[in-house]
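Practice record 12: protein with nicotinamide-adenine-dinucleotide.
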Amino acid sequence: MEQYIEQIVKEVLKEMNGGAPKSAAELGIFTDMETAIAQSAQAQRQVANLSMAEREKIIANIRKKTVENARKFAEMGVSETGMGNVPHKIAKHELLAAKTPGTEDITTAAFSGDNGLTLIEQGPFGVIGAITPCTNPSETVISNTIGMLAAGNTVVFNPHPAAIEVSNYAVRMLNQASVEVGGPENIAASTLKPTVESSGVLFKHPSVQLLAVTGGPGVVTAALKSGKRAIGAGAGNPSVLVDETADIKQAAVYIINGATFDNNLPCIAEKQVVAVDKIMDELMYYMEQNGCYKVNSVEIGKIVDTVLVKKDGCYGLNRDFVGKSAVEILRAIGVDSNARCIIFEGSSEHILVQEELMMPILGIVRAKSVDEGIKLAVELEHGNRHSVHMHSKNVDNLTRFGQAADTAIFVKNAPSYAALGFGGEGFCSFTIASRTGEGLTSARTFTKSRRCVMSDALCIR
Ligand code: NAD
């Protein structure tokens, strides 16, 4: 596997450099974090002096190259991490290329009146330190860079070690895109071997002015303790609630489409369902009609033993099964099926309902009423305040659930991926700052405010 990835990287580097292999460092990859940060700081001085039109020219080329390389990113991502699937990863790259906001997201507020003119402009922070996950590796690297660059920043990544090749391939492509249209090198930087120690250097370095952290609770907490301003995009465990007023057949299709997207890797994807008693059996019937495999109690036990590991009396994820398809999971328990998703009825305490599995397994919890459903669905989101979804035609129920969950994302009567701009309105982001409250990040998230005042200098006595 390692040799295969190495070979792909070599080929890609060769292609990107017109046949002549360049050293990795020339395209933003450095052997150590200190050098990456120093080079990024130097590049940032150049980026800050680019006009908006020049930044936009680089971003346009990034969008173009992302689409051209979408298949390569998707194949590298699946092959290196063993997670997700190629067609959906291609779609994610195409989506981010089209819908990640650029410089148009940076706006100036103006106040004019008897005493003159005041502008509130949005300026860059400088060098941003970014941590990226293995679940959407190149997607996060590219969409972060578009927004950060649009705002006049440069970025140093400490990517997930399990996705380092595809993440660094993205960093190289970003710099190539800049240089090709006359922009600076090192708009994005990374290291050859990121570690927890190298993220520590990023978290503490005086030249890094802002952190943008996308990942699980551990890394977001570490960044928030660093003493620097941090944008924290943490874990989700989205519940989807279905009440008796929903179009049940349609809800089943949408839930399965969302929950199987990239094998359930996205943090916004449906992770468990709460359905009111009245329509529960009908919902499960339509889910089975739409390619779900309903496991029996013996099979559920086997799935628990397969996709989870028990250490010191606590369950954790068996990483070998994160982002795998339902077919692969079922095969591992001896079931031959071409199902898209695995479903079962379970209590809200069931470990497969409680855990953020990131695989196409949906526990379905029966609620006596919509009130009980709201309570259970909120509890199962575990206070992440990240995402919930609901299928209902009752506006009061939708409003009550939205208010109770208080999440950064609430999708109604659609698959979860509508929140990313997929078949839904609005821009795309792969960094959803649930922990720190910015919500879906975009260029303006990576700016600081500057108030410029021109007045008639009225004296105050
Ligand atoms: P992860 O937390 O294992 O890793 C994320 C990154 O943090 C990696 O680069 C990893 O090397 C680093 N890291 C982990 N612990 C660290 C520590 N203590 N100090 C410094 N660095 C550390 O997450 P993952 O498995 O790559 O991704 C899945 C998780 O991320 C899920 O919980 C998912 O919900 C979440 N996620 C959130 C968003 C969002 O936008 N909110 C997006 C994608 C993924």
